[in-house]
Amino acid sequence: MKAERDELAAIHERYARRTLSYEPWAPWVWRTHRALELALIQLLRRHRFLPAADTRLLEVGCGGGANLQMFLRLGFRPNNLAGIELQSDRAAAARQLLPTNVKIRTGDASTLEVASHSVDIVFKSLIFTS
């Protein structure tokens, strides 16, 4: 129990130190997002998830919502998108950025209960870098 709390505290500290490095105006962030978007389009097309209007997606570690916003641009419907974020301030930022029918939860994804066949894609990006 204490080890879990220590690990969660360490994750929060690491994210707090690097908040500014993820600003959208940073050249490496912009290039990374464009490359990710292209790779996702190719992957979604290959696995027949495009067009994506009826595809249900859960993002684990959704942060401030930038990836979920990208999925909206790719044609996903807001009511078919959901995210979970460990940090409450980042989850709040995602709620502000995204349409209200994109479901954003705050908490530890390892404790999230997901009903069988309720999600077509579980997406995660960078959560294992913490």
Describe the structure.
This protein has 130 residues and is α/β, with parallel strands linked by helices. It has a single domain (2-129), classed as Rossmann fold. It has helices at residues 2-17, 27-46, 66-73, 88-97; strands at residues 57-60, 81-85, 103-106, 121-124. Strands 3-2-1-4 form a 4-stranded parallel beta sheet. The longest helix is centred in the N-terminal third of the chain and has 20 residues, at 27-46. It starts with a helix and ends in a 6-residue tail after the last strand.
Topology, please?
Layout: H1 2-17, H2 27-46, E1 57-60, H3 66-73, E2 81-85, H4 88-97, E3 103-106, E4 121-124
Parallel strand pairs: 1-2, 1-4, 2-3
CATH superfamily: Vaccinia Virus protein VP39
- What is the class in the CATH system? Alpha Beta
- Poorly predicted regions: none
Question: Mean pLDDT, rounded to whole units?
Answer: 88
Please summarize the sheet with the most strands. 4 strands, parallel
Helix-strand category: alpha/beta
> Which fold name fills CATH's third level, the topology?
Rossmann fold
Q: How many strand units?
A: 4
Tell me the count of domains. 1
Q: Rg to the nearest angstrom?
A: 15 Å
Order of helices and strands: HHEHEHEE
The assembly state of the depicted protein chains is single chain
How many individual helices? Answer: 4
Strand order across the largest sheet: 3-2-1-4
Q: State the share of residues found in helices, binned by percent.
A: 40-55%
Query: Per CATH, which architecture?
Result: 3-Layer(aba) Sandwich
Principal-axis shape equals globular
Distance between the termini: 19 Å
Strand content: 5-15%
